[in-house]
Amino acid sequence: METKEYHLGSLVIMKKGHPCGNNEWEIVRTGADIKIKCTKCGRTVMLPRVEFNKKLKKVKSEEK
Fold first, then answer.
1. Which residue among 6, 48, 53, 63 sits deepest, i.e. has the most Cβ atoms within 10 Å of its Cβ?
2. Which fold has domain 11-61?
3. What is the pTM of this model?
4. Closest among 37, 64, 32, 28 to 48, alpha carbons compared
5. Which element (helix H / strand E) includes 47?
6. Domain boundaries, the chain
């Protein structure tokens, strides 16, 4: 299984777009759950790590 490297502050692109029309998110919190924030409208969503890994398309940038 492929592991994707992401950290707090990383910009990620998800497989499905947000209703606001954007699919780029910033990681705000990591742990057992991952909290991401839409870079366009500012909405935050918390997902279990397993679900986040399934929905993740690609890591755009690493910002440690």
1. 6
2. SH3 type barrels. (2.30.30)
3. 0.83
4. 32
5. strand 44-48
6. 11-61
